Amino acid sequence: MKNDKGGSALLSVRDLTKKYQEKPVLKGLSFDLVPGQIISFIGPNGAGKMTLLKILSGYLTADSGQVLVGGQDQTNHLEVLNQAVSVVFGGSNGFYKNATVEENLFFFATLMGIPGKERRKRVEKVLSQVTLEEKRKEKVSALSMGLLQRLHIARGLLKESSLLLLDEPTNAVDAETAARLRELIADIAKSGRAIVLTSHILQEVSNLADEIHLLYDGRVQFSGTVEEMAQASGVRQIDRPATLEESYLAFMKRLGG
């Protein structure tokens, strides 16, 4: 996608830093995210992607810098961020496995403080969005990894937040399911939500992201579109532009990763 989105930033991050036991993990991160935009953070394990998502979603404090939501400084206001930002970490955990899909969603809707009259509407809506209506009465323990990933996204959509953070949303699913999940993510962005995506599947990033940030050693080493990253990487092909994967590997080699 081309980044032709307009309007004011829903999320602005300025000079964000974080240390673990005096070891710097994030070193002055800055970026903006506008309605309907998908930005993706790519980089090796340990680059700081998960730390960033936890700070943005109110699960972790920053040491310095700013996190502005709708222009308001919400840095380290964990309860506010947790309410304002939806996050999907995915994986095999996070649900009551002996309860049904529907029961889990009602439980989390209650925890989120969604009023009783609204709860049923929200659950029905997200089940439809991720096409899990026919699985509503199945126990979570019986779900495949692909269905479980869809359930994670459904839980993230319950809040109806304008900001959605997705960590490895198609991890460990088959190609057909991954394709459906990518279509779902694109549709969510088209509805006006802003999305931060992390993924090691660079073709997925290439297909979805309006803007890419290469995170390495706690710093953004490159920001731009796929085309701009290919140009900046210096990779040349005879008959085509460099792919995102080729560009990424060239950057990592240059950075010593």
UniProtKB/TrEMBL annotation:
<keyword id="KW-0813">Transport</keyword>
<protein>
    <submittedName>
        <fullName>ABC transporter ATP-binding protein</fullName>
    </submittedName>
</protein>
<dbReference type="Pfam" id="PF00005">
    <property type="entry name" value="ABC_tran"/>
</dbReference>
<keyword id="KW-0547">Nucleotide-binding</keyword>
<comment type="similarity">
    <text>Belongs to the ABC transporter superfamily.</text>
</comment>
<keyword id="KW-0067">ATP-binding</keyword>
<dbReference type="InterPro" id="IPR027417">
    <property type="entry name" value="P-loop_NTPase"/>
</dbReference>
<dbReference type="InterPro" id="IPR050763">
    <property type="entry name" value="ABC_transporter_ATP-binding"/>
</dbReference>
<feature type="domain" description="ABC transporter">
    <location>
        <begin position="11"/>
        <end position="242"/>
    </location>
</feature>
<dbReference type="InterPro" id="IPR003439">
    <property type="entry name" value="ABC_transporter-like_ATP-bd"/>
</dbReference>
<dbReference type="InterPro" id="IPR003593">
    <property type="entry name" value="AAA+_ATPase"/>
</dbReference>
<dbReference type="GO" id="GO:0005524">
    <property type="term" value="F:ATP binding"/>
</dbReference>
